[in-house]
Amino acid sequence: MSFIFQKWYYVDTHNPENLISDNIYRNQILIDIQFQTWYYFLAKVQSRTDRNTTFLRIDQMAFTDFNSIAQVQEAFKIKYTEDEYIQYVDIEPSQAFLEEFEFSQRHINVFSSEASRCENVIYPVLRDVYKNYVKWFALWSHELISYDEDLSGTPDYLISTKSGLGKTVPGTPIIIVAEAKRNDFIKGWGQCLAELVAVQKINDDDKKTVYGIVTDGEFWQFGKLDGNQFTRNETALTISELKKVFGAIGYLMDVSLPEN
Questions:
Q1: Are residues 221 and 146 in the same domain?
Q2: The pTM is what?
Q3: Are the C-beta atoms of residues 217 and 110 closer than 8 Å to each other?
Q4: If you average pLDDT over every residue of the chain, what do you get?
Q5: Number of domains observed in the structure of the chain
């Protein structure tokens, strides 16, 4: 697979650990030039030297580079189908959640931006459902995961089993949640399915179903990857069906409980 992202970065040769870039990642990429290892990105590195200046070219394929389900299907030989598999667990939103959610809807334009959708709708919903399953699972926000150079990146949210090492280390990922940025569910599902393929490979168990949610905060869509079979749920939900959204997310956690 060819890499999509290519850019030259200037590196101060007197202080090669200091990468200087003109893009938004200038304070986030840390490079060990000697060993060509990476923190924050996994990438292939090529270098060239011009006088006293060294340049590094970064070639990277991230989850967000997958633009559709079909693209992931072709890359990883995934079959596609649709079915009505989602069930609804009887979970009531907490009173604290309802009060905060009503306040936000009344006084804040919660759908004004991607950040606002995440902060005021998506994460609060996930967190409130998660409280019912805190004994078994861990909720992660923007946690880097990586299988190889083609399957690496940062899901918006993921739910994993609890790790025996404590809350600082993810256990086995079971649910991926991807925001449909700019309300683009086609690209959102491309990203989500690539992330599901990655966690399936990380888990080293293609018989264990992993689940995906793509949402813009207003609309909620559900899918699952079982082996090389991806199934998208036929029915999508809206945030106005709040109890159903809670029940559907709860169902995914119910079927992923350790005893199951």
A1: yes
A2: 0.77
A3: yes
A4: 82
A5: 2
